[in-house]
From TrEMBL:
The keyword DNA-binding applies. Pfam families: GerE (PF00196), Response_reg (PF00072). InterPro entries: CheY-like_superfamily, NreC/VraR/RcsB-like_REC, Sig_transdc_resp-reg_C-effctor, Sig_transdc_resp-reg_receiver, Tscrpt_reg_LuxR_C, WalR-like. It comes from Streptomyces smaragdinus. This is Oxygen regulatory protein NreC. GO terms for molecular function: DNA binding. Residues 144-215 form the HTH luxR-type domain.
Length: 216
């Protein structure tokens, strides 16, 4: 797997590169600014780009804007964004630009190496990985969307794990139920959130976007 890393803190940038290389992954370039990150992505055509949210010059949303621009230049480019805090508006900006091959993790997740690598591989494979803390805050702040009230407690559990990017088998294992039961819950979630099979989007991601969009 070929990876480009964009992080303005030299210590964190090199530490992340060392961690990934120690796992046998190919870090083809590192960058400290959004412009350098975009140049590296254009030059190396990585399998996935890992970008920090807050980068120079203003340290606000440069990383998110670079991620959106990278996917505009390279459609479908898998991008994993790292943030020190839960910033729902930034997550919405990123996910709103398209579904699949996208991840949004808190930086503390990097220290949990197995979880971080699992998320990275899922994103590189075209899946999604949204930090559980982001998902938790979405649920606690989503009362304005009446569709949320339609979900049963078990359906909320299933949707939370879907939002993290877990497949049906992993959800079943986590909740100690059968895959058949998970499949039924997911069908019910899609129906209650008005997500039609005819939709041309990934309904798993669209289910999470309902909450992100409601944050306004």
């Amino acid at each position: 797997m070929r990876i480009v890393i964009a992080e303005d803190d030299p210590l964190l940038r090199e530490g992340l590169a060392l961690l990934l290389r120690a796992e046998g992954l190919d870090v083809v370039a590192t960058a400290g600014t959004p412009d350098d990150a975009l140049a590296a992505i254009g030059e190396h055509h990585p399998d996935v780009a890992v970008l920090d949210v807050r980068m120079p010059p203003t340290h606000t949303d440069e990383g998110i804007r670079a991620a959106v621009e990278a996917r505009r230049r390279v459609p479908g480019l898998p991008v994993l964004v790292l943030s020190a805090y839960v910033e729902q508006s930034f997550a919405r900006d990123l996910l709103g630009g398209g579904v699949g091959g996208l991840g949004y993790l808190l930086k503390e997740r990097v220290g949990r190496v197995e979880e971080f690598l699992d998320a990275l591989h899922r994103v590189a494979g075209g899946g999604t990985a949204i930090d559980p803390e982001v998902v938790a805050q979405l649920f606690t702040r989503s009362h304005r969307d009446t569709r949320l009230e339609r979900l049963s407690p078990r359906e909320r559990d299933v949707l939370a794990l879907m939002a993290e990017g877990l497949g049906n088998g992993a959800i079943a294992e986590r909740l100690v139920v059968t895959e058949g039961a998970v499949h039924k819950h997911i069908r019910s979630i899609f129906a209650k959130l008005d997500l039609s099979p005819a939709d041309r989007t990934d309904r798993r991601v669209a289910a999470v976007l309902r909450y992100l969009e409601d944050r306004g």
